[in-house]
């Protein structure tokens, strides 16, 4: 019990027993003395709860900041998306105490987001669902860490996503228009996305050690499915990598070595480029759809594309199957020809038939 080091985290963590249960969390400190003070403070909060029957109050924005620091940035390659969602939540909820957030507040948040326009169109139910899912995870972690007792998101209904089979991809003309207006930094990112099919979070989390030059491939160590995968290194991607300066361990980073994923810079610049190119109804994740769609239309089989995308099964990849009429034609033509040609009646019999 006390403070200790944990693998994969630069911070000291605390742990203590409370009513027969272990309470633990990150101190957010790399200095042992500071970490020790955080540990004492957290333990005192629980002592206070035991005496008063209530947990120490915590603002929602502070809870979400703790979630980002101690969980999302350590465990999620897509934590930049969490940052964006949390910014929206904080703007709406303000300084509300976390324990005071009610299902009604969350329904009002959903309604407010539905009325928000992005690129001239309303925010989709799927986007709001992702934001609510992040909030749900944050509350669950707070309960696990002994900061809260209940999760209001559990009583909130998510929007239906039965029509989620989106396969929007760039046409050849759209791709040319987009590449023509991109800044050098963003162009490199987009080329990697188009030639690897990687998610935005996976690209922003790429490190130089993930490039296996000997095997001519990219190693995706942290994917959404939790499994490592390998993607062949396209010559265009190799060209991008050779043009990038090495400021730190991350491939896509600023001059200080900080990865672009720590802000919404990529997404903001990408949306501006789409407007400039006159491309509508397109999101950064659709670059991944473009990669898959082009492969399918050029004859790649679903299993191979599924493996490149990192899907756990081909079920997710089947949304692209309609783009490959060629392989369907080949399959139908495998059937043996069994029908005999219809004989042509002699001309005399044809004439007799007419007379009859």
Structure description:
48% of the residues lie in helices and 9% in strands. With 356 residues, the protein is mostly helical. The model has no long low-confidence stretch (mean pLDDT 82). The chain folds into 3 domains: 2-52; 60-155, DNA polymerase, domain 1; 172-323, Orthogonal Bundle (hpI Integrase, Chain A). Helix 2 runs antiparallel to helix 3, helix 3 packs across helix 5 and helix 6 packs across helix 10 (265-277).
CATH secondary-structure class of the largest domain = Mainly Alpha
CATH superfamily of the largest domain: Intergrase catalytic core
Mean pLDDT: 82
CATH topology of the largest domain: hpI Integrase, Chain A
Provide the β-strand percentage band: 5-15%
Count of extended strands? 8
Helix count, per DSSP?
Answer: 14
| CATH architectural name of the largest domain | Orthogonal Bundle
> Can you write the helix and strand succession as a string?
EEEHHHHEEHHHHEEEHHHHHH
């Amino acid at each position: 019990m006390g403070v200790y080091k944990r693998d994969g985290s630069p911070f000291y963590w605390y742990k203590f027993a409370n009513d027969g249960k272990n309470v633990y969390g990150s101190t957010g400190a790399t200095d042992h003395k500071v970490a020790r003070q955080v540990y004492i403070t957290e333990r005192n909060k629980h002592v206070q709860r035991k005496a008063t029957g209530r947990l120490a109050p915590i603002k929602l924005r502070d809870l979400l900041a703790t979630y980002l620091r101690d969980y999302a940035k350590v465990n999620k390659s897509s934590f930049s998306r969490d940052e964006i969602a949390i910014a929206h939540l904080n703007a709406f909820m303000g300084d509300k105490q976390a324990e005071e957030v009610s299902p009604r507040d969350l329904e009002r948040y959903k309604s407010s987001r539905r009325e928000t326009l992005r690129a001239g169109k309303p925010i989709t139910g799927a986007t709001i669902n992702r934001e609510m899912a992040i909030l749900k995870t944050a509350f669950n972690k707070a309960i696990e860490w002994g900061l809260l007792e209940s999760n209001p998101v559990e009583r909130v209904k998510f929007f239906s996503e039965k029509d989620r089979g989106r396969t929007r991809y760039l046409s050849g003309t759209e791709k040319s228009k987009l590449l023509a207006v991109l800044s050098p930094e963003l162009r490199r990112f987009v080329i990697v996305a188009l030639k690897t099919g990687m998610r935005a979070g996976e690209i922003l989390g790429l490190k130089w050690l993930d490039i296996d030059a000997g095997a001519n491939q990219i190693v995706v160590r942290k994917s959404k499915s939790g499994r490592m995968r390998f993607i062949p290194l396209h010559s265009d991607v190799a060209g991008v990598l050779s043009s990038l300066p090495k400021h730190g361990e991350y491939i896509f980073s600023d001059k200080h070595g900080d990865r672009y994923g720590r802000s919404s810079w990529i997404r903001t610049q990408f949306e501006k480029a789409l407007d400039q190119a006159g491309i509508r109804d397109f999101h950064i994740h659709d670059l991944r759809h473009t990669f898959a769609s082009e492969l399918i239309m050029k004859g790649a089989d679903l299993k191979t594309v599924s493996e490149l995308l990192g899907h756990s099964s081909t079920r997710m990849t089947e949304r692209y199957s309609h783009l490959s009429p060629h392989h369907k034609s080949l399959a139908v033509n495998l059937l043996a020809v069994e029908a005999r040609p219809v004989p042509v009646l002699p001309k005399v019999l044809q004439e007799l038939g007419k007379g009859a």
